[in-house]
C-alpha cells in the first residue's frame, strides 16, 4: 500500500490581542467581516478545503486568544502544527515588536522537529485603516524582520477589505505542505512499452 | 494534440488470467448493468443528449431514449439539443405508468431507415461542431445535429473501415485498408490534407502506432497480446490504450501520461477487448464480462468491479459507445446477440457509503468529494459521518492526532462523541445528564417544528432525554475497554484537550448568543465552514456587544452556563484531562477561572491526586469558602493528616506560605460571600501562626471589614495588634475617627497600663532584693525608685507617645473621660496633654514645672497654646470676612433687584471696620473714599464661619469684583510673615465661590501690591549700601591695626644664622626678631630664594615682610 497522502493541515494563528486574527480567519473561511471587536475567549478552529496545485487539502485553522489572561491553555493548541501564522497590526508598532515573542513562544511550546525551517507566515493586518495614513510599521521594516528570520513570507492584509487574505492563506497552505516529508512514490518518466507488463499490484505486495 | 492516434485491433487471443484475478484493491459496486433492448442488426452505438444512437447493419439509425416522444419528423427535435426539453406531456404520462423510483424503460423513439448507405459501421458525435459523423459503406458523412441533415462528406472515404475525429484540431482520420487519409474540417467541407500508409490493415493489427498529423509520419508504439487493440479518449489530451491486460494512458506527443503522479497504468484482471471511460473509472469489456477500475487511485486503495455480461460465449464481439452519457452511463452492444445494455453508474454518495462500510474512509472521503455541487448538503452530511467514523477508527488505532482532526471536521462530533472515547474523563452521571439534556433539547426543537407544521411524530423531551442518557452510559461502558492506558492515555488526552477546550469556547459562544440554546450547540462539530453557528457568530468567540469588557463578558457567559449539564460535563472532563497531563500550572489556572466543574467529581479527583491548591481554587470558584479555608488550614498546619500527600503547588504550603495563602484567600473573598464567623474562626489560627499575616489580611480586604467586626477578633486573638490595626484603619479612612479615635486611646491606655504594671512588678522585685541585702547599683536603685512612682517605664512604651500625640492632634476625643481613667500619679505627660486640650493650662503647666520639672516642655506647651490660639483667631477672622462679603453681595443683589445700587466704596470700609475690630490686624483702604457703610451688622448675616459659600447672585455687575480683591489684600496682609512673603490662604476666593470677576477690578490690589514691592526693594537697596560702606570702613581699620614699625640697625643679627642682617632681604617675626629671608626659607624648608628687595611669602606665620636695608624702617602687614 502506498504511503497515504497528507490532506489535513493544522495552522495556528498567533498575535497580540486585537490585531485581527479572528477576522482574518473568518474572512477567509466564511467570507464575513464584522467591525465589532470581540475578544476571543480560549481558542477554537475553523476548517476549509483548499486546492494547492493538484491537491485538495483541508486546513484546520486554530484561532487563539491574544489576551494574556486567556493564553494559559494556549500551548495545548500548538502541538502538531504544520504552519504558524504571526499576525500584527500595521498601525501598532507594539504588536509588531511582539512578533518575536510570539514566534519564540511557539517554537518553545510546539517544539517542532526542525525549528529553523518551520514554516511561519507573517501577516500585517489592517492596512485599510485611514487609507494607510495611520500605518506605523512599514512593509520594508516588516520584510527586513522576516528576512532576518530566514525569509518568512510577509503579506499586507486587510480582513475588512478582503485584501490579500486568500493569497496569504494559499501561501500558508503551500508552505505547510512543503514541510511534510516527501512522499516516496515511484514516478516513471516513460513507460517501456516493450517490457513485459507488470501489474501494479505486484509492486505493492504489502496490500 | 499534435499527434492523433489511430489504431486498429483485431484478433489475437490474449492470455486470459481468469475472471477473479483482481486481487488488489476493494470491490465496489460502481455500476449496474441494465438491459436496454435487443436489436439483432446492431452494428455500433453512440450517445448524444439523452439519446442512444444505434447504427444497424442495414443502414438504419435508431434513436433510443427513456423519454418517449411523438415522432413528427425525420430529425431530432431542436429542443432536444440540450437534452432537457423533451415533451413534458408524454414524459408525465410515462412517469405515471412506471413504478416509483424506477427509471423509465428505454424505447426506440425514432427509426431512420437508409440513414447510411449499406451498413453503419461507426458513429461518433463531434460535439464541438454539433455534428454526427457516420461511417457507412459510402464513406464518412457528417450530419448536423439535431436536424440530422447531411452537411459534409469526406472524399475518397468509400470503403473505409474506421475513422477518428479530433475536435480540438477539427481533424478527421479515415482508414481505408492500409491507407490513412487526414482531413481538415473547415466549416463546410472536409479538406484533404495528407495521407499515410500502415504496414498492414489496421483492423488486423495488434500494433499501436502514432501518426503525426502534420507530417503523416507513422511511428510504431507497441504491440499488445490481448484479444484486440483498443483505445478510448480519456480527456482532450489523453487516451487509454489496452496493452495486454493493462491500460496505459498516453498523453500529447505520444508519450505515457504522468496523470496523478503515478504510472498512468490500469491493470485488468483479463486482457480487455474494448475500453470505455466513465470518470473516475475505466471500463474494460472482455469475454469474462465488464471490469471497472479507477483510472487513478483516489487515495491509496484501488477500487474495482466485475460484472458478468450474461452473454453467450460466442458473443465476444461487443460494441461500446465511445462516449459516456451525461450521467456517466456507458452503453454496449453484443453484435452476436443484439443485446444492448446500459452500464449505469452508482451515485458517488452511494459509492462513498459502500467505502465507508468497507472501512476505506480516505477513499470514501475522496469519493464524496466527487459528489456534484448541487448535492452539497448531502455531501456535507455524508462527510460528517465519514469523518466521525474515521476518527473513531483512527482513535482505536492509536492515531490520536489524526483521529481528532477528523472529529474536528465532522459536524456530528460533539463533545459527547469525544468523551465517549475517554470513559476516564467522563463521569457516567455527568455524561448521562448531558446526553439527556441534549436529547431533550433536540426533541424540544423537533416538537417546536412539529407544532409549526414541519414534522410529526416527535417524542416527549423527557423520554428522549432518559433514553439518550441510558444509551450514553451504555456506550461509555462499551468504550471502557478501548480506552488507551498509561502513556498512550496521556498522549491521547494531550491531543483531545484542545478540542474539549474548543467545544467549551463554542458553548460559551452559544451561551452568549441568546438566539441559540447552549445545550444544542454543545454537540456542534468543527466543520464550521458549513455549520450555522459559524455564520451566526464565529465559533471560538463570545459574540457579545462592545459594551462589557472581556472579563465582564466571561462572567456573563458563566452565569448563562450555570446549570448546563453539558457545560458541567465539559469542564469536569477538562479538569480530569489537565489532571492527567504533566503539571504545567494549566489546571490551577483553569479552576481559578469561573467554571462549571462538577464539585463532587472534581473534589474526588483532586483529593485523590493531592492537588489541593487546585482544590482550594475550585472551592473558591464554587463559593465553598469554609471547605477551602479548612483545607488551607490543614495544608499549613497539619499536612500530614491529609488523605494524600500534597502535590504540585500545594506541596509548598506547609507553614507560613499556607498562612499567607489563607490570608490571600480571605482577602479575595467576594464581599457578598464574607462570613464573619468563618473569618473569625480562621483568623485565630492565622494570627497565631503569623500575626503579621493576620494583620495584613484585615488591612488588605477590599472593601475592608468594618472595625466593629475586626476589633473583637483582634482583641480576642491578638490584642497587641488592635492598636496597629486601628491606626491603619484610621489612616486609610476605614474607621470613623469620631468613634474609633476614642477606642484607639483606650487601647493605648490599656497597653500602657499592661506594660507598666509588668515593669513595676519587676522593679518591685528588684527593690525587694535590695531590701534583702543584695548589692544593687545606683542606677538600679534609681530605676526602682522611679518605677515605684510610675514614671520611668511609661515613656518607653511606644503607645505612650502615640497616645500623647493622639490627644494633642485629635479634636474628637472625650478628654474628660480619658482624664478620669488615668491614674492620679502616673502618665503625667498624658494628663498634662489632656489638661491642655481641656484648657486647664495652669494645672498642665504645674505638672510640667513642678512634677516633671521640664521647663523646656512647659515652654513648648506655651508656644503650642499660643499658636493654637492664633490659628483660631485667624480662622475666625477669615470666616468673618467671608461672611461680610457674602452679606454685601446679598445686599447688592437685593439693591439691584429693587432698582438701587450699592454705594461704591462701602465694601472696603466695612471690611476696614472689621479689621479694626480685630485690633491686631492691619486694614487698608483702596479705591473708594471714606464713605462709611454704617449699619453693617456682619453677625446678623448669620453666615457659618467655617467655609465660604457661593453668594446668591454672584454673577452680578462688574463693580462687584473689586470687593473680592479687597478681601484678598486683607487676607494676604494678615498672612504676610516677617520675611515679606505670603502664606497660602485657606479661604482664598476662587472661581467656584465667586463666579466671574472682571480683571479691571483687580487694579487697586495690583497698585498696592506694586507699591509695596517697590518700597521693599528701595529699603533693601539702602540697607545693602549701608552694609557695604560699613564693610569698607572695617577693612581700613583692620589695616591700621596691623601696621607697625621695625627699626633695623647694622648691629641686628639674623636670629637663625646669627650674622648681621645688613641690607639683605629680611623677615620679621611676631616677637620682633629678625632673620634673613633666605635663612627663613631654608629653615622653613621652602628652598625658594626670593629675589629683590621686596618679596611676599605666606609661610612666615602669615606675615609679609618688605625689607629695606640701612637702618630703614619697615612697614609690615599681616
UniProtKB/TrEMBL annotation, chain A:
GO terms for molecular function: GTP binding; GTPase activity. CDD domains: Rab7 (cd01862). Pfam families: Ras. Keywords: GTP-binding, Lipoprotein, Membrane, Nucleotide-binding, Prenylation, Protein transport, Transport. It is found in: Endomembrane system. GO terms for cellular component: endomembrane system; vacuolar membrane. It is a lipid-anchor. It comes from the Eukaryota. One of its GO terms (biological process) is protein transport. PROSITE patterns: RAB (PS51419), RAS (PS51421), RHO (PS51420). PANTHER family: RAB FAMILY (PTHR47981), RAS-RELATED PROTEIN RAB-7A (PTHR47981:SF20). Belongs to the small GTPase superfamily. Rab family. This is Ras-related protein Rab7.
UniProtKB/TrEMBL annotation, chain B:
It is found in: Cytoplasm. Keywords: Cytoplasm, Protein transport, Transport. Residues 39-322 form the CNH domain. One of its GO terms (cellular component) is cytoplasm. Residues 10-23 have a biased composition (Gly residues). InterPro entries: CNH_dom (IPR001180), Vam6/VPS39/TRAP1 (IPR032914), VPS39/TGF_beta_rcpt-assoc_1 (IPR019452), VPS39/TGFA1_Znf (IPR019453). One of its GO terms (biological process) is protein transport. Residues 73-100, 463-473, 1089-1106 have a biased composition (Low complexity). Residues 1-23, 73-103, 454-481, 1089-1118 are annotated as: Disordered. It comes from the Eukaryota. Pfam families: CNH, Vps39_1, zf-Vps39_C. This is CNH domain-containing protein.
Amino acid at each position: 500500500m502506498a504511503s497515504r497522502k497528507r490532506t489535513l493541515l493544522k495552522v495556528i494563528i498567533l498575535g497580540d490581542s486585537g490585531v485581527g486574527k479572528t477576522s482574518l480567519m473568518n474572512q477567509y473561511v466564511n467570507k464575513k467581516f464584522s467591525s465589532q471587536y470581540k475578544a476571543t475567549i480560549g481558542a477554537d478552529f475553523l476548517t476549509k478545503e483548499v486546492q494547492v496545485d493538484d491537491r485538495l487539502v483541508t486546513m484546520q485553522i486554530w484561532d487563539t486568544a491574544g489576551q494574556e489572561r486567556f493564553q494559559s491553555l494556549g500551548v495545548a493548541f500548538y502541538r502538531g502544527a504544520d504552519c504558524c501564522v504571526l499576525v500584527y497590526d500595521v498601525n501598532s508598532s507594539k504588536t509588531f515588536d511582539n512578533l518575536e515573542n510570539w514566534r519564540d513562544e511557539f517554537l518553545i511550546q510546539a517544539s517542532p522537529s526542525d525549528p529553523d525551517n518551520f514554516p511561519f507566515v507573517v501577516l500585517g493586518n489592517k492596512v485599510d485603516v485611514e487609507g494607510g495614513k495611520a500605518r506605523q510599521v512599514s512593509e520594508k521594516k516588516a520584510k527586513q524582520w522576516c528576512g532576518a528570520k530566514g525569509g518568512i513570507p510577509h503579506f499586507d492584509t486587510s480582513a475588512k477589505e478582503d485584501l490579500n487574505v486568500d493569497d496569504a492563506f494559499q501561501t500558508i497552505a503551500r508552505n505547510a505542505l512543503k514541510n511534510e516529508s516527501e512522499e516516496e512514490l515511484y514516478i516513471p518518466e516513460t513507460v517501456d512499452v516493450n517490457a513485459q507488463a507488470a501489474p501494479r499490484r505486484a509492486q505493492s505486495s504489502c496490500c | 494534440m499534435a499527434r492523433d492516434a489511430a489504431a486498429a485491433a483485431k484478433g489475437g487471443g490474449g492470455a486470459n488470467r481468469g475472471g477473479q484475478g483482481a486481487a488488489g484493491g476493494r470491490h465496489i459496486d460502481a455500476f449496474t448493468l441494465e438491459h436496454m433492448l435487443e436489436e439483432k442488426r446492431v452494428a455500433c452505438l453512440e450517445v448524444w443528449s439523452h439519446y442512444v444512437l444505434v447504427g444497424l447493419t442495414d443502414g438504419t439509425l435508431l434513436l433510443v431514449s427513456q423519454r418517449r416522444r411523438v415522432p413528427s419528423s425525420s430529425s431530432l427535435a431542436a429542443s432536444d439539443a440540450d437534452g432537457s426539453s423533451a415533451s413534458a406531456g408524454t414524459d408525465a404520462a410515462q412517469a405515471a405508468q412506471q413504478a416509483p423510483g424506477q427509471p423509465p424503460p428505454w424505447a426506440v423513439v425514432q427509426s431512420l431507415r437508409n440513414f447510411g448507405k449499406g451498413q453503419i459501421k461507426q458513429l461518433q458525435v463531434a460535439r464541438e461542431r454539433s455534428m454526427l459523423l457516420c461511417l457507412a459503406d459510402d464513406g464518412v458523412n457528417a450530419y448536423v445535429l439535431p436536424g440530422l441533415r447531411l452537411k459534409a462528406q469526406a472524399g475518397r472515404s468509400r470503403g473505409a473501415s474506421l475513422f477518428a475525429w479530433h475536435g480540438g484540431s477539427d481533424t478527421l482520420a479515415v482508414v481505408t485498408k492500409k491507407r490513412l487519409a487526414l482531413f481538415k474540417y473547415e466549416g463546410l467541407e472536409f479538406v484533404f490534407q495528407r495521407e499515410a500508409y500502415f504496414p498492414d490493415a489496421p483492423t488486423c493489427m495488434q500494433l499501436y502506432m502514432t501518426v503525426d498529423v502534420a507530417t503523416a509520419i507513422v511511428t510504431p508504439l507497441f504491440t499488445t497480446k490481448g484479444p484486440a487493440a483498443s483505445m478510448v479518449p480519456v480527456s482532450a489530451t489523453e487516451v487509454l490504450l489496452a496493452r495486454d491486460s493493462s491500460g496505459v494512458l498516453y498523453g500529447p506527443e505520444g508519450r505515457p501520461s504522468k496523470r496523478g503522479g503515478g504510472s498512468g497504468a490500469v491493470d485488468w484482471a483479463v486482457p480487455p477487448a474494448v475500453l470505455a471511460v466513465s470518470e473516475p473509472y475505466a471500463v474494460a469489456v472482455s469475454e469474462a464480462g465488464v471490469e471497472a477500475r479507477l483510472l487513478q487511485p483516489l487515495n491509496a486503495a484501488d477500487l474495482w468491479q466485475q460484472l458478468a455480461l450474461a452473454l453467450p460465449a460466442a458473443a465476444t464481439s461487443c460494441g461500446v459507445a465511445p462516449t459516456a452519457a451525461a450521467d456517466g452511463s456507458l452503453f454496449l452492444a453484443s453484435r452476436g446477440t443484439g443485446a444492448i445494455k446500459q452500464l449505469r453508474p452508482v451515485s458517488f454518495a452511494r459509492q462513498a457509503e459502500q467505502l465507508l462500510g468497507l472501512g476505506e474512509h480516505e477513499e470514501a472521503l475522496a469519493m464524496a468529494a466527487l459528489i456534484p455541487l448541487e448535492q452539497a448538503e448531502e455531501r456535507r452530511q455524508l462527510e460528517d459521518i465519514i469523518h466521525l467514523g474515521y476518527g473513531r477508527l483512527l482513535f482505536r488505532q492509536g492515531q490520536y492526532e489524526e483521529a481528532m482532526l477528523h472529529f474536528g471536521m465532522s459536524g456530528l462530533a460533539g463533545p459527547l462523541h469525544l468523551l465517549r472515547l475517554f470513559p476516564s474523563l467522563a463521569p457516567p452521571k455527568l455524561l448521562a445528564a448531558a446526553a439527556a439534556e441534549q436529547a431533550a433539547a433536540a426533541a424540544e426543537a423537533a416538537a417546536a417544528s412539529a407544532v409549526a407544521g414541519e414534522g410529526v411524530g416527535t417524542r416527549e423531551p423527557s423520554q428522549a432525554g432518559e433514553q439518550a442518557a441510558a444509551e450514553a452510559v451504555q456506550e461509555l461502558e462499551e468504550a471502557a475497554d478501548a480506552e488507551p492506558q498509561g502513556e498512550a492515555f496521556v498522549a491521547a488526552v494531550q491531543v483531545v484537550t484542545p478540542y474539549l477546550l474548543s467545544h467549551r469556547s463554542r458553548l460559551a459562544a452559544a451561551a452568549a448568543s441568546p438566539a441559540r440554546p447552549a445545550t444544542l450547540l454543545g454537540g456542534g462539530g468543527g466543520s464550521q465552514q458549513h455549520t450555522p453557528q459559524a455564520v451566526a457568530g464565529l465559533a471560538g468567540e463570545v459574540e457579545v456587544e462592545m459594551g462589557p469588557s472581556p472579563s465582564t463578558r466571561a462572567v456573563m457567559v458563566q452565569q448563562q452556563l450555570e446549570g448546563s449539564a453539558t457545560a458541567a460535563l465539559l469542564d469536569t472532563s477538562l479538569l480530569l484531562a489537565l489532571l492527567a497531563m504533566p503539571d504545567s500550572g494549566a489546571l490551577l489556572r483553569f479552576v481559578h477561572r469561573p467554571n462549571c466543574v462538577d464539585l463532587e467529581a472534581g473534589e474526588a479527583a483532586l483529593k485523590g491526586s493531592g492537588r489541593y491548591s487546585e482544590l482550594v481554587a475550585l472551592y473558591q470558584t464554587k463559593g465553598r469558602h469554609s471547605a477551602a479555608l479548612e483545607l488551607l488550614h490543614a495544608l499549613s498546619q497539619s499536612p500530614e493528616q491529609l488523605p494524600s500527600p500534597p502535590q504540585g503547588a500545594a506541596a509548598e504550603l506547609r507553614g507560613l506560605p499556607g498562612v499567607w495563602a489563607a490570608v490571600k484567600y480571605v482577602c479575595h473573598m467576594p464581599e457578598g460571600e464574607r462570613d464573619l464567623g468563618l473569618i473569625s474562626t480562621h483568623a485565630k489560627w492565622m494570627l497565631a501562626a503569623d500575626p503579621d499575616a493576620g494583620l495584613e489580611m484585615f488591612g488588605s480586604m477590599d472593601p475592608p471589614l468594618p472595625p466593629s467586626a475586626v476589633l473583637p477578633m483582634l482583641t480576642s486573638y491578638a490584642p497587641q495588634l488592635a492598636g496597629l490595626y486601628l491606626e491603619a484603619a484610621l489612616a486609610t479612612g476605614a474607621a470613623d475617627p469620631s468613634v474609633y479615635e476614642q477606642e484607639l486611646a483606650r487601647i493605648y491606655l490599656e497597653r500602657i497600663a499592661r506594660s507598666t504594671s509588668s515593669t513595676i512588678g519587676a522593679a518591685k522585685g528588684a527593690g525587694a532584693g535590695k531590701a534583702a541585702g543584695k548589692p544593687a547599683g545606683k542606677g538600679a536603685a534609681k530605676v526602682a525608685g522611679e518605677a515605684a512612682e510610675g514614671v520611668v517605664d511609661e515613656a518607653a512604651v511606644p503607645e505612650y507617645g502615640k497616645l500623647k500625640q493622639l490627644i494633642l492632634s485629635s479634636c474628637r476625643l472625650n478628654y474628660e473621660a480619658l482624664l478620669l481613667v488615668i491614674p492620679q500619679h502616673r502618665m503625667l505627660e498624658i494628663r498634662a496633654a489632656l489638661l491642655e486640650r481641656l484648657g486647664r493650662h495652669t494645672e498642665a503647666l504645674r505638672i510640667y514645672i513642678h512634677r516633671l520639672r521640664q521647663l523646656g516642655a512647659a515652654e513648648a506647651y506655651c508656644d503650642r497654646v499660643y499658636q493654637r490660639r492664633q490659628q483660631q483667631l485667624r480662622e475666625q477672622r477669615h470666616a468673618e470676612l467671608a461672611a461680610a462679603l457674602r452679606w454685601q453681595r446679598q445686599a447688592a443683589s437685593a439693591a439691584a433687584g429693587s432698582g438701587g445700587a450699592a454705594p461704591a466704596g462701602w465694601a472696603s470700609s466695612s471690611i476696614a471696620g472689621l479689621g479694626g475690630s480685630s485690633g491686631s490686624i492691619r486694614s487698608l483702604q483702596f479705591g473708594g473714599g471714606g464713605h462709611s457703610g454704617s449699619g453693617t451688622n456682619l453677625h446678623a448675616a448669620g453666615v457659618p464661619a467655617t467655609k465660604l459659600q457661593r453668594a446668591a447672585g454672584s454673577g452680578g455687575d462688574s463693580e462687584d469684583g473689586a470687593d473680592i480683591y479687597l478681601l484678598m489684600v486683607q487676607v494676604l496682609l494678615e498672612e504676610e510673615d516677617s520675611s515679606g512673603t505670603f502664606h497660602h490662604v485657606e479661604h482664598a476666593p476662587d472661581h467656584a465661590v465667586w463666579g466671574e470677576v472682571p480683571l479691571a477690578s483687580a487694579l487697586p490690589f495690583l497698585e498696592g501690591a506694586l507699591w509695596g514691592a517697590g518700597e521693599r526693594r528701595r529699603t533693601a537697596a539702602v540697607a545693602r549700601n549701608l552694609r557695604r560702606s560699613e564693610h569698607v570702613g572695617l577693612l581700613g581699620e583692620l589695616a591700621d591695626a596691623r601696621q607697625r614699625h621695625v627699626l633695623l640697625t647694622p648691629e641686628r643679627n639674623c636670629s637663625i644664622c646669627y650674622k648681621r642682617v645688613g641690607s639683605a632681604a629680611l623677615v620679621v617675626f611676631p616677637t620682633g626678631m629678625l632673620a634673613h629671608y633666605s635663612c627663613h626659607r631654608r629653615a622653613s624648608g621652602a628652598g625658594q630664594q626670593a629675589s629683590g628687595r621686596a618679596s611676599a611669602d605666606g609661610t612666615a606665620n602669615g606675615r609679609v615682610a618688605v625689607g629695606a636695608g640701612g637702618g630703614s624702617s619697615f612697614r609690615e602687614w599681616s
